[in-house]
Specification:
It is a single chain. With 450 residues, this protein is of the alpha/beta class. It has 3 domains: 117 residues, no CATH class; 115 residues, Rossmann fold, CATH 3.40.50; 192 residues, no CATH class. It has a 6-stranded mixed beta sheet. Strand 5 and strand 6 form a beta hairpin. It is flat. This is Exopolysaccharide biosynthesis polyprenyl glycosylphosphotransferase. Keywords: Membrane, Transferase, Transmembrane, Transmembrane helix.
Length: 450
Amino acid sequence: MRRTTGRYSGYIRPFSYLLDLIIINILTGVLLPETIGFYYNIFISITWITIALNIGFYEVYRYTKAIEIFGKILKQYALFLVFSFAYIGYFSKYSQPSETIKYTTTAMALVAAFKFAVFYFLKRFRVVFGGNFRRVIIVGQSKNICQLQEFFIENPDYGYKLEKVFHFDKNESTENIESCFKFALDRDIDEIYCSLQDLSNSQVSKFVDFTDNNLKLLKFLPDSKEILSRNLVYDYYGYIPIISMRNIPLDKPFNKIIKRVFDIFFSLLIIIGLLSWLTPLLAILIKMESRGPIFFKQKRNGLNYKEFNCYKFRSMRPNEIADLEQVSKNDPRITRIGRFIRKTSIDELPQFFNVILGDMSVVGPRPHMVSHTEMYARSVDKFMVRHFIKPGITGLAQTNGYRGEVETNYDIINRVKYDIFYLENWSLLLDIKIIYLTVYNAIKGDEKAY
């Protein structure tokens, strides 16, 4: 298993936010009088971000057209101008419409200039240096396939490197499909594009299963622009319609920010209010019973299959098989204090530091030790889908009876089903509900908590 790259750069968007905020705040001191006040800077910063999130101002992808960017700029400018006039007219005695217009227009012009500069720089960077690209293959033999093939070849600035076209039809043999899958793994393919009219339902299912289990992105070329499912998302590469198979709410920037803010706030609440005094107490009790560190550190797989160190209070005596074997009922490795903190889930509390570090979320699919992830990835259908989002301290599966030791295949299969449901139906209210149920189960006692 290899980790796939991000859907877009993780550095460009934060840089764009920061640069734009610097521009609009510096220009207030240059183009507006001092009587406007510092609170105006706070107001315009919050307003700018709020408008941008609602209109998708920073949602610029490798296939986005320049005219679409220009449209976003006009929307941002219009709304920013309206809110600037509203604040100044209501809170300030200063009333010079021409200077307000000059300020917002200048700020927007500079923001637009940098936005287009980054956009065209990335296009040029892909052509000249071959960087920031994604490896793709195409499956099918319809007219749409030829058009998409030409698009990828003639537009290297979009950052797609076409590795191969598989001319499949509905009568294609299983061996040839398997050779396609082998090619995708050997060449570390990022995205697979399939023509729906050239594949049977069973063949489509095979591609869905393969991409889900190997953390690849699957996209379809439709027969015509018909809505096949409410969860499917349409994009356009030039004038070619493309369907994205899986719609993940946490792919949206606004949802990411909301979840991250909640994670940080909730984690700080636990760290300051609980761990600040509980950690020294547990440290004494853990050390009194057995030698070894206070905290247990173990490699787990997180977002995009990336490994990270997951922290827990040590509940077992140091042993050589801690990274290989799950804890079972009446496990002799568990200490007396360890049995208590595992029963009450207190041993998981240090993972709130993992949340602050950005490796985990408060709620999400529970991460498995690396050896078990490799095993389940090979044997459990769609297991790898869980890695499209950050792992969590608790999750929907855990609140529905699938926590702790995996005793049968039924346990892990249902855990994956709950995790995928959570991934496709995330909301902040769902997170809050899962946290409540986790606390309730910890107080009530869970028979699988051992």
